């Protein structure tokens, strides 16, 4: 139909997609996380499956059903997301799409017991989490890699910087300063960058954006040929 990527454009392709937030435990009952809904990643997964791909989603905690024909592998922390992504890519992967909002830092340690309210102020020591997308892109057998960049200012510059720094084939830039678009919304508007060009998509529903992204990724991943 008109809302889908051309039928069969990803036939025989194996996709791994990260989606949703991660949760970084502070103690047995508390965690650090963010407002990612996972909707964009799940919409891309569904569109890619409809386009003929075998799709695995490495998913942080979300309230979404697995799209038809998509295998969801649930994870909680950024460490889990890296480990499960590496495992899925090792099984064979042509295209890796990182839509997850991975927590950049985690508590240095998780308290064994619930932290009690005994002090007037407290601070939490945080350490940096591993970067799943950069790790996958640095593999000698790296698939075609697609990143997402949610930015509030200088969207094009920050996004293309990320593409170069992480050695990505493509980056989808999201201006999250626009109310009602992006995080936790059903709508989005993005600009896709690759080393030789760019294309704006939307504003549109996340499902329509997903189908258009899948078509663009299919076209470019074939050109690069890995
Ligand atoms: N990403 C990832 N693992 C991380 C952090 C980010 O796989 N630990 C991926 C995201 O899924 C996204 C891309 O990297 O596809 C860019 O994420 P973003 O948060 O915009 O970039 P960072 O490198 O974390 O930089 P910053 O948050 O400082 O802008
Ligand atoms: Ca980040």
Automatic annotation (TrEMBL):
Entry keywords, A to Z: Decarboxylase, Flavoprotein, FMN, Ligase, Lyase, Magnesium, Metal-binding, Multifunctional enzyme
EC number: 4.1.1.36, 6.3.2.5
GO cellular component: phosphopantothenoylcysteine decarboxylase complex
Cofactor(s) this protein requires: Mg(2+); FMN
Annotated metabolic or biological route of this protein: Cofactor biosynthesis; coenzyme A biosynthesis; CoA from (R)-pantothenate: step 3/5; Cofactor biosynthesis; coenzyme A biosynthesis; CoA from (R)-pantothenate: step 2/5
UniProt record, GO biological process: coenzyme A biosynthetic process; pantothenate catabolic process
Entry annotated with the keyword Ligase: yes
Cofactor binding note of this UniProt entry: Binds 1 FMN per subunit.
Domain of life (superkingdom): Bacteria
Tagged with keyword Metal-binding: yes
Binding site for CTP: 104, 114, 148, 162, 166
Swiss-Prot/TrEMBL catalytic activity: (R)-4'-phosphopantothenate + L-cysteine + CTP = N-[(R)-4-phosphopantothenoyl]-L-cysteine + CMP + diphosphate + H(+); N-[(R)-4-phosphopantothenoyl]-L-cysteine + H(+) = (R)-4'-phosphopantetheine + CO2
Region (Phosphopantothenate--cysteine ligase): 15-226
Segments forming domain DNA/pantothenate metabolism flavoprotein C-terminal: 10-219
A GO term, aspect molecular function: metal ion binding
Similarity-based family: In the C-terminal section; belongs to the PPC synthetase family. In the N-terminal section; belongs to the HFCD (homo-oligomeric flavin containing Cys decarboxylase) superfamily.
Function statement: Catalyzes two sequential steps in the biosynthesis of coenzyme A. In the first step cysteine is conjugated to 4'-phosphopantothenate to form 4-phosphopantothenoylcysteine. In the second step the latter compound is decarboxylated to form 4'-phosphopantotheine. Catalyzes two steps in the biosynthesis of coenzyme A. In the first step cysteine is conjugated to 4'-phosphopantothenate to form 4-phosphopantothenoylcysteine, in the latter compound is decarboxylated to form 4'-phosphopantotheine.
Protein name as catalogued: Coenzyme A biosynthesis bifunctional protein CoaBC
Gene label: coaBC
